[in-house]
Known about the structure:
Shape: globular
Distance between the termini: 29 Å
Strand content: 25-35%
Low-confidence stretches: 147-156, 162-173
Mean pLDDT: 80
Order of helices and strands: EHEHEEEEEHHHHEHEE
Number of helices: 7
Largest sheet: 7 strands, mixed
Structural class: alpha+beta
Number of strands: 10
Helix content: 25-40%
Amino acid sequence: MNYWLVIARERVFMGIVEAGLFGCRDPECGLLMTRVRPGTRLVLFVSGFGCKSYCKSFVGGVFEVVSDWVKASRKLSDWSHVVEVKPIALGRVELGRIANKLSFTRGGRRSITEALHSVDPSNPRAMPMPVEDAELIINELRSQSMPKPVIEVLGGTPKGGTKEVVGGGVGSTGVKAGAEVQGISEAVTLLKEAAQLFGYYPVSNVDAGEYRLDLAWWG
């Protein structure tokens, strides 16, 4: 599994989170299509150009590519081809907080900008990000996202266990349990609509470390 760093402007990053798509523009697509394939993981980094809230941060999380490249059916950040992506970790970590812990940015004579582009798949001379660096970023993102209150309200799926519904005292079998699960599904649907109403981006099926969340809001 390869990890690559995607350096994007803030508005492009928001589009990736909202649409669940990552793309490229011709003529750079040839290189990206070779390097970014199903199973590849992309670490999003917001550049300092034209940003307001997430400047120079690993933000939004780590996304896994889950489809092959297809021609874009609608205009999105001027991309000509896109792949579907799903979030693996959500959160935000400023570069300055962990730069001295990452092997590809620590030491040496090159600048931070050169270091970032050294793991950027659009750079012909780049190499994938070291796995230990990617895991460090993932752990930092998860520690910042603090998803526990959402799990307590909606219930979650513990890894290696069965689904639990918190608060109702209902088991995982029987008619009452089925109705409870259906009620949670309806609540998730309503919360997706509410997220958009308040200007957030709803993201489904999020891996939060110990739990997998049915829904998370990003804003």
